[in-house]
């Protein structure tokens, strides 16, 4: 069993929508904020969204604002990334990550090396023009 498992990646055309899921296993017992990151080969992992444990607070990168939203269902232990108006530059491997706090840090949530305890294996999203 892995702590986090992403699903829902695949191919999409520009302008289409895609949703990713992150299943949170029982290995994670504490309350965690959940973030989504993405990475293309040769580049640093980029923070996309963060949602607090309660869902009351969320942040998103400027590059995806008004297009991507995150949500979660704590009863089902699943976090989601809803991506709309996809662009070819959204092509990347997408990872979910569980923070070591129930809250998204406003100044560091987007930094992959800062405060994330668990990572998923990633799911590929490819957007064609």
Question: Helices and strands in order, then pairings?
Answer:
Blueprint: E1 4-7, E2 10-13, E3 18-24, E4 34-39, E5 46-51, E6 58-60, E7 68-73, E8 78-83, E9 92-99, E10 116-119, E11 123-128
Parallel strand pairs: 2-11
Antiparallel strand pairs: 1-3, 3-8, 4-5, 4-9, 5-6, 7-8, 9-10, 9-11
Oligomer description: single chain
Strand content: over 45%
Mean pLDDT, as a whole number? 95
How much helix, percentage-wise, in residues? under 10%
Q: What is the number of helical segments per DSSP (H or I, 4+ residues)?
A: 0
Gross morphology: globular
Give the biggest beta sheet: 7 strands, mixed
Compute the gyration radius: what is it?
13 Å
Terminal-residue CA separation: 37 Å
Order of helices and strands: EEEEEEEEEEE
- Structural class, by secondary structure, is mainly beta
- How many strands appear in the DSSP assignment? 11
List segments where confidence is low: pLDDT < 50 over at least 5 consecutive residues: none
Can you tell me about this structure?
With 129 residues, this protein is mostly beta strands. The protein is 0% helix and 47% strand. It is built from no helices and 11 strands. It has strands at residues 4-7, 10-13, 18-24, 34-39, 46-51, 58-60, 68-73, 78-83, 92-99, 116-119, 123-128. The strands form 2 sheets. Strands 2, 4, 5, 6, 9, 10 and 11 form a 7-stranded mixed sheet that branches. The model has no long low-confidence stretch (mean pLDDT 95).
């Amino acid at each position: 069993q892995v702590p986090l498992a992403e699903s829902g990646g695949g191919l999409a055309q520009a302008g289409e929508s895609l949703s990713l899921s992150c299943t949170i296993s029982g290995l994670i017992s504490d309350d965690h904020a959940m973030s989504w990151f993405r990475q293309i080969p040769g580049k640093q992992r980029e923070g996309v969204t963060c949602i607090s444990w309660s869902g009351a607070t969320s942040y998103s990168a400027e590059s995806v604002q008004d297009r991507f939203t995150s949500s979660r269902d704590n009863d089902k232990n699943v976090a989601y990334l809803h991506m709309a108006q996809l662009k070819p530059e959204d092509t990347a491997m997408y990872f979910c990550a569980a923070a070591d706090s129930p809250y998204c840090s406003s100044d560091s949530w987007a930094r992959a090396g800062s405060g994330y305890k668990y990572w998923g294996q990633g799911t590929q999203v490819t957007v064609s023009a």
